[in-house]
Automatic annotation (TrEMBL):
Biological classification of the source: Bacteria, Bacillati, Cyanobacteriota, Cyanophyceae, Coleofasciculales
One Gene Ontology cellular component annotation held by this UniProt entry: outer membrane-bounded periplasmic space
Pfam families assigned: GUN4, GUN4_N
Stretches assigned to the GUN4 N-terminal ARM-like repeat domain: 9-89
Residue ranges of domain GUN4-like in the record: 97-236
Stated name of the protein: GUN4-like family
InterPro entries per record: ARM-type_fold, GUN4-like, GUN4-like_sf, GUN4_N
Single GO term (MF): tetrapyrrole binding
Amino acid sequence: MIDQTTASVPETSNQLAELSNQLRSSSEKKQLQLIPELVNQGDAGLDVLMDFLQAQSSTPPSLSVGLAYQALYQAKTAKTEEFLQSHFPTGIVPLLSERDIDYAPLQQLLAEQEFQAADRLTLEKLCDLAGSAALQRKWLYFSEVEKFPIPDLQTINTLWVIHSQGKFGFSVQRELWLAMGKNWEKLWPKIGWKSGNSWTRYPNEFTWDLSAPKGHLPLSNQLRGVRVIATLLSHPAWLS
């Protein structure tokens, strides 16, 4: 009589090997589907994700790399924590800043999918970029946005894009805005900031997870006025 427990070991091993091969060779869309499957495989699946992440470390971060990183970050096992601290101590997105601003706390919140806290911190970091007066008033003038360094805006945006599977970020909002002929009244309902004649109320009426409409976050409408968001979405950071 065959021991069913013993028989399942090579079967599981073969399944993991197949998932690992698919993860390396598939399209990004397929990779995003495979990563949750690997997480469900427990420690062995996490080992596959660590191998995948290490193999991709020399390339620019992709959505699938972002999701793999998040899975390992959220697993919080001794092995995954040691791996991430050793190989990706500040995450997978280069945290570039011309103003010596620390974006690691924002990276951590987004990796944990704490989108509401990340949204508040994003505004704080933007005010930090603008200077002490903006930090004190907690909102921005459009003239301050014009002077934002390109690397800083790109860092903030990439963190949002990579850790939302491409759903959130200033560049995502910009694409939708351009697709609608820069028509704000079409954009607001599209991204869930307005319903009919009613503005979405902060914070309870906004959606703080990936079920939100594309482009829903970050809430740059909280930066005050169309002129500020128009300046932000027209910034040269999105042209380079």
